[in-house]
Amino acid sequence: MKLSYFIFLIVLALLAIFSVRAKAAENISGGTESSLAFTTSDKVMDCLVEPNKSLDISSPVEGVVAKVLVERGDTVKKGQILMELESSVERAVLSLARERSEFAERTLSRNDNVAGVMSSQEKDEIITDAKVAKLEVQEAEMRLDMKKIKSPIDGLVVERMRAEGEYVSEEPVFSIISIDPIFVEVIASTESFGIAKYGDKVMVVPEQPIGGRYEALVTKVDSVMDSASGTFRIRLEIPNSDYALPSGLKCVVEF
To answer: 233 near 183, Cβ under 8 Å?
Structure first.
């Protein structure tokens, strides 16, 4: 009797062990790729980290590339020169315009001393020549400056399309993105409308190897639904001055 009871206890223990292992295996196989982190939030949605601006930069004038000053992956500031086109003609025109302007100024200065013996028309012509010469200098400076392709934003160079010696016309020569702040785009189902409003703070969990948890601000909630897909968009912003978050990451957001 005692032996049968002992065997019965062993069988119960083995059944309990097998049950626990089966349940653990079920939990592992049932996980989804979007579950990037454990969370206690009531609502979790997939999201995508994107730049706040993405620009294809072209040259304002045609020409041959003389210098390339930045490469892919470089950070740039607004107004920074990215590329210079060949500009020997423009520099020569500017030098000539400056010489003419200086001569016109000297002529105006000399004739100021004899203004009493000059007719009003002669004096007006000298003054006008000096003004026109200054404007010609400004025009030449602008034409020379247009040979320098500059960044319109603070950002990151993601692609360079032209090299030294190549001809540039209307096509883009650089692609630049701005990732401070960085945007997080959420496509939510219509059933979730009202889950977030402008000014709310939520948590964003990027995929590995970045990981971590980032507080984001809700900056836009679409009021128009996409009837075809039954979805609407929510936009979040995360400060990213150190560029710790790259664009293109998958993530989840906890509302």
So the answer is: no
Using only C-alpha atoms, the chain has a radius of gyration, in whole angstroms, of 34
Task: Please give the structure tokens belonging to residue 247.
Answer: 């664009």
**Residue 207 φ then ψ, to 5°:** -70, 165
**Domains of the chain in sequence order:** 34-52+179-254 (2.40.30.170), 55-85+151-176 (2.40.50.100), 87-146 (1.10.287)
pLDDT in tens, 2-49: 445 455 445 445 544 444 344 434 433 333 343 443 344 568 999 999
pLDDT at 7: 55
Per residue in 109-120, pLDDT (tens digit) is 887 765 556 778
The contacts of residue 78 (CB under 8 Å, 6+ apart) are 151, 152, 153, 154
Please compute, for residue 196, the number of CA atoms within 13 A of its CA located in the half-sphere on the CB side.
30
Backbone angles phi, psi at 192, to 5 degrees: -95, 5
User: Do 246 and 236 contact (CB within 8 A), yes or no?
Assistant: no
For residue 159, the one-letter residue type is E
Non-local (6+) Cβ contacts of 240 within 8 A are: 179, 180, 181, 182
